[in-house]
UniProtKB/TrEMBL annotation:
This is DNA polymerase. GO terms for cellular component: nucleus. Belongs to the DNA polymerase type-X family. GO terms for molecular function: DNA binding; DNA-directed DNA polymerase activity; metal ion binding. PROSITE patterns: DNA_POLYMERASE_X (PS00522). Residues 2-349 form the DNA-directed DNA polymerase X domain. GO terms for biological process: double-strand break repair via nonhomologous end joining. DNA polymerase that functions in several pathways of DNA repair. Involved in base excision repair (BER) responsible for repair of lesions that give rise to abasic (AP) sites in DNA. Also contributes to DNA double-strand break repair by non-homologous end joining and homologous recombination. Has both template-dependent and template-independent (terminal transferase) DNA polymerase activities. Has also a 5'-deoxyribose-5-phosphate lyase (dRP lyase) activity. Its main location: nucleus. InterPro entries: DNA-dir_DNA_pol_X, DNA_pol-X_BS, DNA_pol_B_palm_palm, DNA_pol_lambd_fingers_domain, DNA_pol_lamdba_lyase_dom_sf, DNA_Pol_thumb_sf, DNA_pol_X, DNA_pol_X_beta-like.
């Protein structure tokens, strides 16, 4: 999907975006294109691709892409941390073809320049024992009375994988308030220890009460005594939505997508900050049922009101969403509520 989007083919990108979750949900191994015929999002072209893969074990179109200069350059640039499809295409159109060409490219953001500088480091898998040591280092930091802070390493490490692409650290505090302001002090302490080295993303919302009160840090760290950079992410959640953050940052992506689709089928919206009763407005954005009720009452009472008045109400409601998540304290409660079979973390490598 990244490639098609970067090449400007939004229609094809969207087609694959719709088809992937349909295929992922199938309870059987595909052995013939006939098995997917008629499924939503699976058109004739995609059926042909599936049949070719089933029959030959490969896709000729991909083999063509492997030798296409534009495709190769865009794919390479897209592997730089922080570079999306539009930026990758722009870099190609400027005339860049190799990573070396980007060393003096002023249009790159600070984070993208860091991603370029440590390109090979970031792409190197991290052995499980190293993740364990670095996660232990994070959890052992003395934070002046915050001994009760819960710090857990999620991602592929929690799923039991032998190596990880990065380290996902999920944090909360059981008292529901001491997580506020924790991340800034925590990152500073880790920098003083020469563990955290470069910043990529740093946002704090807990003290302002914005964005569900979740604080985020993405950066690079080093194993003690080494210079090899490793990607590390910290997400600090209020205790009442910690279970949702833990599910999202444990993964895997396939499971997360299945849970989101299941939630939508039951009239909810699921993300890392909660499970929200939600419906869709005509603009495609989600609004809660009470807002829709207000909207219906307003439109009924306005009767002969101008179209402009109706549009203003519509625009107002399209910018809203249900803000109160269901109160579920554990991952299992979330699974149970959605009616999805419980999976231990090591069982989530779908």
């Amino acid at each position: 999907m990244f490639l098609w989007k970067a090449l400007g083919d939004d229609r094809r990108s969207f087609s694959y975006h719709k088809a992937i979750p349909v295929i992922e949900k199938l309870p059987f191994k595909i052995e013939s294109a006939e098995q997917v015929k008629g499924l939503p999002g699976i058109g004739k072209s995609l059926q042909d691709h599936i049949q070719e893969i089933v029959t030959t074990g490969k896709l000729s179109k991909l083999e063509h892409f492997e030798t296409d200069e534009k495709v190769c350059a865009i794919t390479l640039f897209g592997e730089i941390w922080g570079v999306g499809p539009a930026t990758a295409l722009k870099l190609y159109e400027i005339g860049h073809r190799r990573l070396e060409d980007l060393e003096n490219e002023d249009s790159l953001t600070t984070s993208q320049k860091i991603g370029l500088k440590y390109f090979d480091d970031i792409r190197t898998r991290i052995p499980r024992n190293e993740v364990k040591c670095q996660a232990s280092l994070s959890t052992s930091v003395d934070m002046d009375g915050n001994d009760l802070v819960l710090i857990l390493c999620g991602g592929s490490y929690r799923r039991g994988k032998a190596s990880c692409g990065d380290m996902d650290i999920v944090v909360t505090h059981p008292d529901g308030k001491s997580h506020k302001g924790f991340l800034s002090k925590f990152v500073k302490r880790l920098k003083d220890m020469k563990f955290v080295r470069e910043d990529l993303v740093f946002t704090t919302h807990s003290e302002q009460g914005t964005d569900s009160g979740v604080d985020t840090y993405f950066g690079l760290c080093t194993y003690p005594g080494r210079e090899l950079r490793r990607r590390i992410d910290f997400k600090v959640y209020p205790r009442d939505i910690y279970a949702f953050g833990l599910i999202a940052w444990t993964g895997n992506d396939v499971l997360n997508r299945r849970l989101r689709l299941l939630a939508e089928s039951k009239g909810f919206r699921l993300d890392d900050t909660g499970l929200f009763p939600a419906t869709h407005s005509s603009g495609g954005k989600r609004v809660n049922e009470s807002d829709l009720t207000v909207f219906r009452i307003c439109t009924n009472r306005l009767g002969q009101a101008t179209l402009t008045g109706i549009q203003q109400i519509t625009i107002l409601l399209q910018g809203t969403r249900a803000t109160a998540s269901l109160k579920l304290q554990t991952e299992k409660e979330v699974f149970d509520y959605l009616g999805f079979p419980w999976l231990e973390p090591h069982e989530r490598n779908l």
